[in-house]
Prior knowledge:
Elements: E1 2-6, H1 10-20, E2 27-28, H2 35-44, E3 49-52, H3 61-71, E4 76-81, H4 86-94, E5 99-102, H5 107-118, H6 137-143, H7 147-157, H8 162-169, H9 173-187, H10 192-201
Parallel strand pairs: 1-2, 1-3, 3-4, 4-5
Protein name: Response regulator transcription factor
Domain Response regulatory: 2-118
GO molecular function, one term: DNA binding
Amino acid sequence: MTLLLADDHPLLLDGLRNVLSDLPNVELMPPVHNGRQLLDVLYRSAVDLLLLDLNMPKIDGMTALKQIRRDFPAIKIIIFTSYDQPQRVREAKALGAMGYLLKTTDAPTLKMAVQQVGEGKLWFPMLQTKVLEPPGDAFMQKYQLTKREIEIIQQIVGGLTTRQIADTFSLSEFTINAHRRNIARKLGIDTPVGLVNFAREQGLV
Length: 205
């Protein structure tokens, strides 16, 4: 699977390449730094998956997304941006993006999203607006997760930082960190990728 990174910040691109370089069956293409360069590459080269920033010079990400969907409908696109407004997420999804990640996303979640979208699945945890019921009473008895803890798991899996989660629920960062410690203790999971796997296996996202 060929993966193209489109962003105008060289240091960020270097970090992304370091994180994604060890993914199996992924070939990283030379990155592009603006919307015009992006479209030029797409017209010349076969790209399977695109990680696309919204705020790029010459042609912005949303405009590029529309044109890519029209001219290259087979390309899978993940928006990778600092914009965390739900309306932006919904707009990107409506225009054909298959995933939406914030630039604060940790490395394991980024890898998981790339793998999932590469397999043709959607990745929009920020649009999760309700708590899905755990699969039965045995689940609740085993893990003893509260409704708030499940909501926080969904936000963590969506790539939000502690500060952003605190703002979402109008709570302090201290309270969110306490919830995170409780979640780790109850589940026996202390890594982000472990939490992502748990959430998906249990139908929480």
